[in-house]
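DM from R.C. (forwarded with permission)

"hey, sorry to bug you on a friday — could you get me a structure for this? deadline for the figure draft is monday and I only need the backbone to look sensible"
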Amino acid sequence: MEILKTLIKILVIALIYFGVGPMLGFLMRGKDLFRRIALGFMAFELVRPPSDFTLMLYSIEKYRGHTKGFEFNFLEAIAIGFVVTSLLEGRRDFRWSPPALWAWFLWIVVGLFSVVHAIEPLYVFMPAFKFVKMGIIFVGVFAALRDDKDLLAMMRGFAVALLVQVVICLWGRYVQGGFRVMGWFEHQNPMAMWSYMVAFPILGLALTKETKPFDVYLFFSAFASAGLVVVLSVSRASLAAMGIGAALILFGSFLQGFTVRRIAVAVGGGLGAIFVLAMAADTFMERMGEDDSPKNDLRFALNQQSAAMLKDQPLVGIGWNNFGLANSRPQGTKYSAILERWEENRGRNIYPEQFRANPLTESFYWLLLAENGFLGMATLAIFLLLTVWFAMRSTIAFWKTPMGLMLMGIFVAFSITYLHCKVERVLTQTKNLTTWIMFCALVSKTEWWRREKNRERRLTAKEQR
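My reply, with the result:
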């Protein structure tokens, strides 16, 4: 029976990747509207549960690692369509290796070095497979973005996704009686981080003078929805991130000039935030009363496990996607003992059978250091710095265009998300990861536009001389 299920999965995957993807490419050829609808749908679909657009081969459901099998993401079929369309149209701006993508693949190659210390070598290839295929999303989105109308189509898709998400969260909070709602996400924290990452560039567009009235209403509604989602998640760090990010973008808009809309947003946003926080004050006060001292904070003990793994294997780590094995009994008794001592110091009785599936560290960086060592951390840092650098340079280069505040929103989103990853590992999770890669492809394309613009200026100056 399992063999039959696997064969059916393989057939579905083959049909979507080698049939639907290329077919979309032929259908979108020369049709800008169709391509923009597909781009918007790609962004919107990321609000849906991962099971709607992923399929796993060799899935290990009981494993508590960050990748449980060889994951196929059907949004990659749309990306394949974008690539095929660009090839058929002979686009000059198409690139198999867009700016920064080399750093992404360098990180993956270095991550594979960790296989030498892995308890289960096969598990190392699961995230490598997943992240290599994220390169398809990167190349596809890079190919699909050809002008500011395409950027707008993507952001409209994300805006509609936020509007849907807030309805799901309100239902979970006030109809189903949930405390920390998580919508269609695996947990409330990735939902909150996804919401503010998407909300910042949307706010930038809403504040842009050239944005049409319908889009202004859509984007303001989406941003307000994101703020409400963050509040309903009861994530203190995300709430602070939302407030800081919104203030930075609003300040950036004032640098471009004061308008009635921007002043109204500042006043209305402040009043709205006060009202929403007052409505949710009871839940936040309950969260504030939680004891986050090292003695009672599980994250502290898990980070200690990570530090011990890094100390033992500092160069390439204990094995990509092997943390869940290395920190649990019976194969990871040495590191499980750290968590057991922590529990014992809290007055708990220790039963070895309860430590066979210990949780992963919440910190993205501690997880990376433990599994991939300093080499893995260094190579990923190159990619992170490149994306922030491209976002900042693009913001400066296109500051006086309709893209300026949107690009500033992405720069703020990257900066805050990368800081927040000190305590959350969301960039390993499919929905947040795919959204992030789409934004990385976006700033890669704007960086390419910036370079082309400078090249044309140099050629013009040379001809004039």
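R.C.: lifesaver. The chain has a mean pLDDT of 90.
me: no worries. The beta strands are 54-57, 70-73.
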